[in-house]
Design brief:
By secondary structure, the chain is α+β, with helices and mostly antiparallel strands. It contains 16 helices and 16 strands. The protein is elongated and about 90 Å long.
Length: 449
């Protein structure tokens, strides 16, 4: 029975107090991306396994060790998506978006799946926000994509975040670089882990991304790709840096940053924090100019980034940044008897239709218990309705913060309540600023009614 009441290892529940913050974060991510012209795309949670083998790269840890792969009932090998880019490229090709005006700018928020050892900042099911841009090879597009992430962190108030950039060149650059890496690492074959010895011939750059402390130590003195860039790649990288400089975005060139996926070319980047321990990368991405063609499409330059929302929330928490939470109950209406409850239910229905968070009793509590409940949920206003109030056609509404009480007509209560709360807000503003504020809001209400 214990298994029935525990989430699967590496997964987590988001309870109501957290989902409200999550919704705020999600809307912030989309709003900022959309201000750059990016539009949301939604792709299936699973794809043909070959898409990730060819797109992400067979020599990566993701493909070799971490994918959730299985045969469906038709005998086809399918995989739960471990990241968002490959699926976005597949959709770009399947629906012919390359025939539309370029660049095509896409963004998404996806649940992704990787079989990794669960630890702080790393889950087997995680949420990834990402952007992808198809159709621009210009270094200005690299800077624009980086600036989206930069603006997200700035808007949320994140501090002490380092942008690390590098260029890993094109296939021509990397031929010479791969040879240099092979010659360097061959002298350490007996010390490298089995996985890195396998990578030595297939893709020696992957050794630089190995998490083994021994391999990391060996990699510290290895050749760096920047020394092997061709003229075009060097010029492109210099262009990216100039655009970042012009935008006032500080960065550090990290010549050993290669990212963990095989599809990257030229620009790669990471936003790194020291506030969340070993899992310090909160956003990473780069250019993948060959991936569209690799998956069967026309030659199309492309780039993007991925940002795990779980790790981002860890960083916000570590820096004491609190996201807005639940929408607080605006008014709790307590009926004193069964007959009054019918009218109260009608009133809260009208209030909710006007966009006001209103609640009432649905479990048969006493009036005293209802007031305790209203206080517990943090209701801003409360009111009690019984036979006397129904007969008089009026009800007293109490502001739970100030203790002030106002008498309002029950008829058209939602309009009366809305006017009352706005007038109270105007009055508070008048105290803080000047009396003209209150008059302007009141006059506005008079004019629209």
């Amino acid at each position: 029975m214990a298994l029935l009441t525990k989430a699967v290892k590496g997964t987590q529940d988001l309870l109501p107090a957290e989902t409200a913050k999550q919704r705020y974060l999600e809307s912030t991510l989309f709003e900022i991306a959309e201000s750059f012209g990016f539009k949301e795309i939604r792709t299936p949670v699973f794809e043909h396994t070959e898409l990730f083998q060819r797109g992400v790269g067979e020599t990566t840890d993701v493909v070799q060790k971490e994918m959730y792969t299985f045969d469906d009932k038709g005998g086809r090998s399918v995989t739960l998506r471990p990241e968002g880019t490959a699926g976005a490229v597949r959709a770009f090709l399947e629906h012919g978006l390359f025939n539309e005006s370029l660049p095509q700018k896409l963004c998404y928020l996806l649940n992704c799946y990787r079989y990794e050892k669960p630890q702080a900042g790393r889950w087997r099911e995680f949420q990834q926000f990402g952007v992808e841009m198809f159709g621009s090879a210009d270094p200005s597009s690299d800077a624009e994509v980086i600036s989206i992430a930069y603006q997200i962190f700035s808007f949320l108030g994140v501090e002490d975040l380092e942008l690390q950039i590098n260029s890993i060149g094109c296939p021509e650059c990397r031929k010479k670089y791969h040879e240099a890496l092979k010659n360097y690492f061959k002298q350490y074959k007996t010390e490298l882990c089995d996985t890195c010895n396998d990578r030595l011939e297939k893709n020696p750059m992957r050794i630089l991304d190995c998490k083994s402390p021994v391999c990391k130590k060996i990699s510290e003195n290895s050749p760096v790709i920047i020394d092997y860039l061709c003229d075009d790649c060097r010029e492109h990288f210099e262009g990216v840096k100039k655009y970042l400089d012009s935008m006032g975005i500080n960065y550090t060139v990290n010549p050993r940053s290669v990212r963990g996926l095989d599809y990257y070319t030229r620009t790669v980047f990471e936003f790194v924090s020291n506030a969340i321990g070993a899992q310090g990368t909160v956003c990473g991405g780069g250019r993948y100019d060959l991936l569209v063609e690799e998956l069967g499409g026309p030659k199309t330059p492309a780039l993007g980034f991925g940002m795990g929302t779980g790790r981002l929330k860890m960083l916000l928490s570590a820096q004491g940044i609190e996201l807005p939470g639940d929408n607080v109950c605006e008014i709790y209406i307590a009926p004193t008897d069964k007959e009054s409850s019918y009218k109260v239910m009608s009133m809260v229905t009208d209030l909710r239709a006007s966009g006001i968070h209103a609640e009432t009793d649905v479990v048969g509590r006493s009036l005293k218990a209802q007031m305790k409940y209203a206080d517990k949920i943090g209701a801003r206003y409360t009111t009690v309705i019984g036979s006397d109030e129904l007969a008089a056609g009026k009800v007293k509404v109490k502001n739970m913060s100030s203790g002030s009480v106002a008498e309002l007509d029950i008829d058209n209560f939602e309009d009366n309540f809305l006017r009352y709360t706005i007038n109270e807000t105007a009055s508070d503003l008048a105290d803080d600023v000047n009396t003209d504020t209150a008059f302007s809001l009141t006059d506005y209400l008079d004019n629209i009614n």
